[in-house]
Amino acid sequence: MSAVRAGIRVVITRPQAQANPLAARLATLGAAPLVFSAMEIESLPDVPWPTIAERLQRSDFAVFISPNAVLQTVPAVLAQGPWPTNIQVVALGAGSAQTLQSLGIATDVVPSQVFDSERLLALPQLQYLTGRRVTIFRGLGGRELLAQTLEARGAAVEQVACYRRAQPQADSVPLRQALAAGAVDALSVTSSEGLQNLLKLLDGPAADALRQSLILVPHPRIAQTAQALGCGRVRLTAAGDAGLIAALTEIFPAHSL
What we know:
- The chain is 40% helix and 19% strand.
- The protein is built from eleven helices and ten strands.
- Helix 10 links the parallel strand 9 (214-217) and strand 10.
- 40% of the residues are buried.
């Protein structure tokens, strides 16, 4: 028996590297996923990986803000030599921890349930950092709360921007057609920037249809952005793939018509 109602149309808006595995999993549960990445990930040129890898050997913590930070960083560091053995690996969320594991790197510190800087900063391992060295791997731009707070706690913080987020270049016609036909049961949106990109790209009637659609988000901050942008059916889920699947199972049970 399917875990969700057969054929429900779920739009996945994650970057491609994270969208495809989720789409495959939803398909096995009976859904009909449509992947339209609301954000593209571009590698930054001229990141000095040999120097970063050498300094990482002297760091106490390596912090990964996102799965994309993991995918950009770990292969580049391993190309310079073995992963440091005396470093604590910190993941902001379960997705980053899972991506690290897939690359053979164990995670030492990760929040539970809610994945954001505030929850990470509340963990006991990051309270007393005088004299400790922290390297944060992240995208270009973004919040500064994590680095600023760790510095205030006495850490020497180095931030490494290893990718940039860009508006999608994919063909939007399939998504427009699905929205116009009322063939979208739900959209999974995992970033405020991604939702803003979608509304800019679609505009007009398609954007109006998106605002009327059920939008599933994993964090209150994204929910607030969606509501501010005029989205009227926003539902907060638990984090990660498991949280999204649990919500879909509740909203669209397999036995419903």
